[in-house]
Amino acid sequence: MRIAVGSDEANELTRVLLEELRLRGHELVLFGAVADGDPDVDWPLAASRAAEAVARGEADEGIVCCWTGTGASIAANKVPGIRAALCHDAYTARGARIWNHANVLALSLRLVSIPVLKEILEAWFSTPVHEGEAQSEWNRQQIERLRDLEARYLCAPAK
Questions:
Q1: Which residue, of 38, 66, 86, 121, has the fewest CB within 10 Å?
Q2: 113, 121, 89: which is closest to 12 by C-alpha?
Q3: In terms of residue numbers, what domain contains 16?
Q4: 38-71 pLDDT, tens per residue?
């Protein structure tokens, strides 16, 4: 799987993240501080560029990081077609895949420890996004409501 990764900081957690992704056999597309020579290291730029790669189909999924993870998730969610989920534990990552069809994982560089990172990645990659018959009618309706919201505000002017 091709994974877009964007972060405003390169540190021990991002080093382990990239290592874990490669060990799982993923091809990486890097943005921000984790990419060699990328000048766009601010979290809105690194996260949105990773999300754009997912939205354009240049990556299957994305992972974005910043100090709290909140800014990176907000920036990623500004990109149409992206459902970024800020996850601090494996349960949330699993739920984000099942109930929200999340295609971008947002992580806090401050709160997530290396053991928890590995648990989150295991939950994320072992839990498929349930589309079609595999999901409940209620869940299908919720995802459709998200799509309707996105369509309604897609052309709305920025404030």
A1: 38
A2: 113
A3: 2-153
A4: 888 999 999 999 999 999 999 999 999 999 999 9
The 10s digit of each residue's pLDDT in 18-41 is 999 999 999 999 999 999 998 889
Catalytic (active site) residue 65: no
Residue position matching structure tokens 């494996």: 90
For the entire predicted model, the pTM comes to 0.91
Spell out a b/e string for 117-135, using b for 16 or more CB atoms within 10 Å of the CB, else e.
beebbebbbebebbeeeeb
Q: What span, in angstroms and rounded, lies between the C-alpha atoms of 107 and 153?
A: 26
- 51 within a domain of the structure (yes/no): yes
38 burial (CB, 10 Å; 0-12 / 13-18 / 19+) is: middle
Task: Count the domains in the chain.
Answer: 1
DSSP line for 7-71: ES--SHHHHHHHHHHHHTT-EEEEEETTSTT-S--SHHHHHHHHHHHHHTTSSSEEEEEESSSHH
Nearest alpha-carbon partner for 26 in 61, 2, 62, 59: 2
The pair of structure tokens assigned to 87 is 């996850």
User: Of the listed 65, 66, 87, 155, which one is catalytic?
Assistant: 66
One-letter amino acid of 2: R
- Any idea what the CATH number is for the domain that residue 26 is in? 3.40.1400.10
